[in-house]
Fold this protein.
Amino acid sequence: MKNTAPAGKNEHLKSRFRELRTFLEKIWKSPCSDFYRQKYEAAGLSLSNIKTWQDWRKIPFLTREDLSKTGPWQRLYVPREKLIATRNTSGTTGGGMVLMLRSEDVDTWKYLSDFHFKSLLSLTSYHRFYTMVRGLSNVGVSVCAGDIHDMPRTAKMAKTLKIDSLLGAGSMILLFGSHLKRPVSLENIRFIMLVGEYTTRLQWENLKKLYPNADIVSIYGSVENGFKEIDSPCRENAKIHNRHHLIEKSAFMEIDENGEIILTTFSDATPLIRYKTGDLGAFINGRCACGSDAPIFSVSGRVNFDAARLKGTEIKADEVERAIYDVLKIERPEFKLHIYEKSDLVPRLVLEIVSIRKPEKFEKMANAAIGRMIAGKIQVSSNLSLGQAIENGLFETLEIIFVSEFPLEQKQKRIILHEF
């Protein structure tokens, strides 16, 4: 199986493997839990088998299903008295679960001292707010919880408390901006921390326009690992959509042949070993302009939700969303791209776009013509657009269908592959 780890000098990679091997041995021999030991022995693996990188990659993946099947106490690798809180995940792309938090798992915010803000409004759930208070209070930031179900009132509260920073999902902070701009100048917002669901490139660009003076950073951290983040944002990363530094003392990252992030976290409480995160990612060569030697990675959505690879191309939801905006000028496009693939036929593409009616400029234009315009804007490789791929016979012509709405789902799949 093709599998990549952060690039680095041989000695550094050897050192990383020694860290992983030592951590694995500690977990394997732990008296607190035998979760991993049972899992690996059932697969015919013993600790003595793990001697090289090639051996490491033989370790079975950990899946969300594995975690959901096992009670949280069975996966706890520290005494219960060391815990300070538990946390439930939302389960928007799968079943929710209970997480265990130690003090060390929530005091992970010192790296934010490079960003200058004093009063943060959290537009997230209570459990995330709790960890925020503990962590950010250590760097002199006051934190308050907003009510996402009463945004006008929350906006008034933000004015009273002189809020200069926001935390939440990108879609939520965009929506909140329309309420906040009435009592508060959006130019006063200096920092935005994006957490939770993936923030698309178009959403990020709209946030930059709406909050012109804000540093905007995405915080990547697997929710299954509690609130212990694995990346450290810097001012340079804040200039680029979904760019991250890997905190090597917190985690080791691999990326499989499908672009999925495989994560091992060095958490003593509820460690993850070779966990399939369901996130699409890539390593970025080179060194950050901030001077950090930390590996750089990007995130581009969710596996089976935001991308599909076929015919030597990759169709990304970000690209489709941006193309719809560029052509039709729909501010926040809702769409589903259906790909119908049969082994002996050219794949058929059907793009459903939520719009009560066609934008006025396109009322007299045939949907086929709109499809050609949108396809020409979608990059499916570094030097090929979807329009060119269609001309080359890789796909059938892009069909466009306008719909009034989609059925309500927890998480909308935006790229849907139908295989026959």
The longest strand covers residues 272-284. The chain has a mean pLDDT of 85.
